[in-house]
Amino acid sequence: MKENMAVREKLVRAARDEFLSQGYQKASLRNIARQADVTTGAIYFFFDSKEGLFHAVVDETANLLRQVLIRGAENEYTGKSSGEENDRAFILALRQHPEEALILLEKTEGSPMAGFRSELTGLLCDGFMRFFLRAGGKEADAALVQLLVEQRVHAILSLIAHRFDLEKTLAYAVLIGAYSEAGFQGMMQKYHQMIKGSAE
C-alpha cells in the first residue's frame, strides 16, 4: 500500500512537471512514465486517463483559489478585509502551489480545466463590479471591468512567475495594489466626467 502511494506521488509530480513545461495538450504520458521511472501501464493502474491524472495534479489548487477569491471579494465588500489583505491571501494561495497555479492559469488548453483562468477572472469581475457600481459606474460597462480585472490578474501572475522571495512578492503586491487603487479613483473621476459630457 505504501509503495503504491509512493508510485502515485511520483506520477503526480512527474505529470505536474510535464504539464508545466508542455501544457496539457502536448503533455505525453510516455514522458511522464519515463520521468517517474515506471511503465506507461502503471499510469492506468492509478488513473483512468490523462484527464484523470491532470485532475490529480490541479484540483486541490483550483478549489483553493476559487475559495480564496470568493471569500475575499465578499469580505472586502462587507468591510471584513481590505483589498491589500485579499491580495496577500491570494498570493499566499498561489505560492502554496506555484506550479499547479501556473498550469491552471496558463497551460490548460485542450484540458477539462481550459476555462479556469476565465472562471477566476469572472469571479474577480463579479466582485469588482460591485465596487464599480457603488462608485457610480453603470452595469453596461462590464467590458471595462473585464479589462481592468485582466490587467490585475496578469500583474499577479507575473509576480508569481518571477519567483521573487515572499517578502519581495508581498511588497510588490502592496505597491501594485496602491497603484491600482489610485488608478481606480482617477479612472472613476474621468469616467464621471465622460458620462456627464455625453449627457449634456
Give an overview in words.
The protein is mostly helical and 200 residues long. It has one domain (58-199). Helix content is 82%, strand content 0%. It has nine helices and no strands. It has helices at residues 2-26, 29-36, 40-46, 50-78, 83-96, 98-106, 116-134, 142-161, 166-199. The longest helix has 34 residues, at 166-199.
Question: What is the fold's blueprint, element by element?
Answer:
Blueprint: H1 2-26, H2 29-36, H3 40-46, H4 50-78, H5 83-96, H6 98-106, H7 116-134, H8 142-161, H9 166-199
Keywords, separated by commas or semicolons:
200 residues; mainly alpha; 82% helix
| Rg for CA atoms | 20 Å
What proportion of the residues is helical, as a percent range? over 70%
Element pattern in H and E: HHHHHHHHH
The global form is elongated
Poorly predicted runs are none
Report mean pLDDT, rounded to a whole number.
87
Distance N to C terminus: 75 Å
Oligomer: single chain
- Main sheet attributes: strand count, strand direction, barrel closure: none
- Structural class based on helices, strands and sheet pairing: mainly alpha
Provide a count of the helices. Answer: 9
Q: Which range does the strand content fall in?
A: under 5%
Give the total of beta strands.
0
Question: How many separate structural domains?
Answer: 1
Describe the structure in brief.
The chain is mostly helical and 200 residues long. It is 82% helix and 0% strand.
